[in-house]
Amino acid sequence: MNETTSKTLVCELCEAGCGLQVELSQGAVTAVRGNERDVTSKGFVCPKGLASLALDQDPDRLRTPVQRCADGSFTPISWEQAFDTVAQRLTAIQKAHGRDAVAVYMGTPIVHKHGALLMRAALLSALGTRNATSAGSQDSSPRFAASYFLYGSAFAIPVPDIDRTQFFLCIGANPLVSNGSFLTAPNMRGRLRALQARGGRIVVVDPRRTETAQAADEHVAITPGSDAAFVLAMTQVLLAERRIDEATLERCTRNWLAIRARLRDYTPERVADYTGVPAATIRRLALEFADAQSSAAYARLGVCNHAFGTLGSYAVDLLNLTAGRLGQVGGSLFATPAIDLGRMARLMGSDGYARFRSRVRGLPEIAGDLPAATLAEEMETPGDGQVRAFITYAGNPVLSTPNGQRLARALGKLDFMVSIDFYVNETTRFADIILPPCGPFAEEHVDLFFANAAAHNAIRWTGAAAPRGEDERCDWEIMLELAYRLGGGPSGLRPLDLLLRAARRFGYRYSLQQTVDLALWFGPYRLRGAAVRAAPDGIDLGPLQAGFERRVFHPDGRIELGTPAILSAFAQQAQALAHPRPVDELLLIGRRDLRSNNSWMHNLPKLVSGRARCVLLVHPDDARRAGVRDGEQAWLESKVHCAQVPVQLSDEMRPGVVSLPHGFGHAGIARFQRVAGEHAGVSANDWTDDQEVEAIVGQSILNGVKVRLRAVVPTAARDASS
Ligand SMILES: Nc1nc2c(c(=O)[nH]1)N[C@H]1C(S)=C(S)[C@@H](COP(=O)(O)OP(=O)(O)OC[C@H]3O[C@@H](n4cnc5c(=O)[nH]c(N)nc54)[C@H](O)[C@@H]3O)O[C@H]1N2
Ligand SMILES: Nc1nc2c(c(=O)[nH]1)N[C@H]1C(S)=C(S)[C@@H](COP(=O)(O)OP(=O)(O)OC[C@H]3O[C@@H](n4cnc5c(=O)[nH]c(N)nc54)[C@H](O)[C@@H]3O)O[C@H]1N2
Ligand code: SF4
Ligand SMILES: [Mo]
Fold first, then answer.
1. CB within 10 Å: which end of the chain, N or C, has fewer?
2. What value does the mean pLDDT of the chain take?
3. What's the gap in Å between 300 CA and the centre of ligand 4?
4. Given a cut of 50, is residue 1 above it in pLDDT?
5. Is the pLDDT of residue 722 over 70?
6. Per-residue model confidence as pLDDT tens digits over 350-379
7. Residue 242 half-sphere exposure toward CB, CA atoms < 13 A
8. Cα dist. 598→291, 394, 639 in Å?
9. Would you state the pLDDT for residue 327?
10. CA distance from start to end of the chain
11. What class does CATH assign to 581-721?
12. Cα dist. 200→51, 164, 169, 197, 395 in Å?
């Protein structure tokens, strides 16, 4: 009998988290589409979500644990054998060299998966290492630090009230392509169109005229790395024009006067050359922001991944706050998630800043994570605490962290490495053992992390859509098994885990469902897990609520504007203002594509078809100066790397800025990911520098990297031959 059934699930590929509907025939998924009844996405889906079927069926995706052979190939082994080897090797290394000898890197997918996220603490606590790093230091650490300073919690992240605002100031983000980051709002195009249809305005600040900039009412082509100064200047205008309700500000914040004094350095005239934005534009935008019926400023990667990333993220909140937009409907609001991850993190002790620092460079942790830019040096530098073994979970730091080639060299010299991933990628190819989780349809989903940054409150709990193979395991199960074998347990709290380990001998089995049930019950809506599970399309919990007081965790309930780290960043930024950039300097920034997902999903033919995407966009003026032509290869050189890249001329670029997408450079893994190998490209992070990081949290500087561009065939030689 060919029985066809249909199930709903949630796409975990990006932060939008769209609802999907899959059709199954005899237990196998045969079709995927958007779930029109999903409370958050209402049928919206993008090409990547649709490609999850191809991901499920990809013959190159690992289905069983594998072990690396002497010739670099991988051979299948049993789970038992794999777990035994991993536990034995990691335990021996920690015994001989201390707990910090094992480093961990957790990639982006962890924040999309409730089980893995809840097991993160279990694995880290079992390991007891300080060398825990993640993709956070490539996209979020400055945002977390700004929130920690301002509100007392790294996870208190304001979200633009995109569905009700009349003025959307979008800085260093490209939500039409990324589908939103710390802005969970599926169907961004529809939402932005609705904003304009109700008479609202969209202004995009970006060195490239991006897809979002093209859909906006105004594009401001800023110089990379200057956003903190730009936004502080907008605030300075509000101050000078007496648009700030200072009495209220003094009541609900600390140290306003210290900041007020520092804002004097940031007149539009003083920052105009530095930002490349005329003073009149800054002044006009500030007043438009203040005068609009409602307005919300929002910033993401383009602001985070720079030398002043934390100050920039802070400045955006300061602008919202001083303009009276923080906590105001149509302004910048806090979500009220059904599971309060922020509170849970505080309870677990994982919220904090600079409670410890990295061994070699002394870079600080944020929320328990050290910067990923410390990895290579921690592996290479001898001495007590040197990293000798490495665990990666769902990540590809060789392509995603700065100076990837240095990291690749360091990985080749480790004593042991294990990866939890379903692909052999540029990083996991160095692993001794790879443990693959089940495919995209075989695990249940609960909205957890990104409900914290949702533009509309909702909760969904979908079951596994397809049965998994007898021998397949979910990520969280793999992590829990590792935790147990390393002497820990599911809670990540030492004494409790000891109890749970003992109970295990008497038949106790950990239940992820019970943990989620509890978290929901103790959440702000006091929901019952069974009720959430019974709603396959999710439960709408209403629009974001006004007010910010409930998200301020400082003991006196006031927003802290002047922590020492922020004050010192103000001083450094003021100094930088005095040193304008050389006119002929070229800065490299990144770029995302709708059909890419960082370094992966390049092995799915539909997502890589068409024109090559890994090209360097260059403004025609810069190309002329460097003597390079459209479609040709050119030398691109930075402090750490020099190699050829294909050039595409584009007047989307601000002159002086070139753009290369990250996540390519697959030539070395062509035998493991055959399709990706045919679309290899180069890795942008070969050019970025692990030694240059943001000052407050050690964030990787992935945008605004100084580069030089040279023709492969010098113009003179070309002229002579023609
Ligand atoms: N130059 C430059 N560099 C950047 C950026 C940039 O803008 N410019 N962006 C940065 C950003 S924002 C990020 S987040 C990082 C991303 O960097 P990473 O998180 O290090 O890498 P990804 O490319 O997302 O790789 C994800 C890996 O997880 C695996 N995977 C996917 N789903 C699952 C799953 O469910 N379970 C498991 N176990 N594995 C899974 C995939 O096979 C893939 O190998 O890159 C950063 N690097
Ligand atoms: N299709 C697709 N979607 C994705 C991803 C993907 O790889 N592909 N990755 C996901 C991940 S992990 C993340 S974190 C999010 C990121 O989500 P976004 O932050 O929205 O994504 P980006 O495209 O990196 O946007 C950063 C923008 O900043 C600009 N920029 C660079 N430097 C500067 C600067 O100095 N100042 C200003 N103002 N702008 C600057 C860039 O030109 C770019 O347009 O996207 C997620 N969604
Ligand atoms: S926008 Fe695309 S990739 Fe992101 S969650 Fe929705 S369907 Fe998945
Ligand atoms: Mo990211």
1. N
2. 96
3. 10
4. no
5. no
6. 899 999 999 999 999 999 999 999 999 999
7. 0
8. 38, 12, 23
9. 98
10. 70
11. mainly beta
12. 34, 9, 11, 7, 39
Distance CA 111, CA 708 (A): 36
H/E run at residue 344: helix 341-348
CA distance 620 to 649: 6
- Mean pLDDT, to the nearest integer, of 540-560? 97
- Tens of pLDDT, residue by residue over 374-388, are 999 999 999 999 999
* Among the listed residues 103, 153, 157, 154, the one whose alpha carbon sits nearest the alpha carbon of residue 127: 103
Name the CATH topology of 4-57. Answer: N-terminal domain of TfIIb (2.20.25)
The DSSP line for 127-188 is: HT-S-EEETHHHHTHHHHHHHHHHHS-TT---EE-TTT-SEEEEES--HHHH--SS-B-S-H
**709 and 640 in contact (C-beta within 8 Å)?**
no
Task: Give bridge partners of residue 651 from the DSSP assignment.
Answer: none
What does the block give as tokens for 410? 């360091």
Q: Are strands 461-462 and 201-205 parallel, antiparallel or unpaired?
A: unpaired
Pocket of ligand 1 (CB under 6 A): 107-109, 113, 135, 138-139, 301, 393-397, 400, 420-423, 425, 437, 475, 590, 598-600, 662-663, 684-685, 688, 702
Instruction: Choose which CATH entry (3.40.50.2000, 2.40.170.20, 3.40.228.10, 3.30.450.20) describes domain 161-328+555-574.
Output: 3.40.228.10
Ligand nearest to the CA of 592: 2
> Are the C-beta atoms of residues 46 and 179 closer than 8 Å to each other?
yes
Reading phi first (left if > 0) and then psi (alpha if -120 to 50, else beta), residue 665 is in: left
Least confident of 329-333, 443-447, 468-472: 468-472
Torsion of CA 638, 641, 642, 646, to 10 degrees: -80
Domain 66-139+351-540, what fold? Rossmann fold (3.40.50)
- Backbone phi and psi for residue 25, each to the nearest 5 degrees, phi listed first: -130, 120
Strands 642-649 and 633-637: antiparallel
Q: Supply the DSSP symbol for 370.
A: B
Å from CA of 533 to ligand 3 middle: 22
CB under 8 Å to 506, separation ≥6 — which residues? none
Torsion angle, alpha carbons of 266, 267, 273, 274, to 10: 10
CA-angle at 239, arms to 237 and 245, nearest 5°: 135
Strand residue runs (E) in 252-406: 253-254, 296-299, 332-333, 353-357, 364-366, 389-393
Q: Tell me, what amino acid is at 170? A: C
What residues form DSSP beta bridges with 160?
Answer: 332
3-state secondary structure of 95: helix
Q: Which two tokens stand for residue 174?
A: 């490209």
Lining ligand 3 with CB less than 6 A are 11, 13-14, 16-18, 45-46, 48-49, 179, 186
Global model pTM greater than 0.70: yes
Largest CA distance in the chain: 84
Joined together, the tokens standing for residue 705 give 């990297």
Query: Which candidate, 32, 13, 702, 708, places its Cα nearest to that of 402?
Result: 702
Burial readout 44-83 (b: 16 or more C-beta within 10 A, e: otherwise)? bbbebbbbbbbbbebebbbebbbbbeeeeebeebeeeebb
What is the pLDDT, as a whole number, of residue 2?
A: 57
For the chain, the structural domain boundaries read 4-57, 66-139+351-540, 161-328+555-574, 581-721
Ligand 3 nearest-atom number relative to CA 47: 2
Helix (H) or strand (E) holding 168: strand 167-171
Helix (H) or strand (E) run with residue 384 in it: none
Closest ligand 3 atom to Cα of 41: 6
Identify the band that residue 348 occupies on the pLDDT scale cut at 50, 70 and 90.
confident
Statement: residue 3 has pLDDT above 90 = no
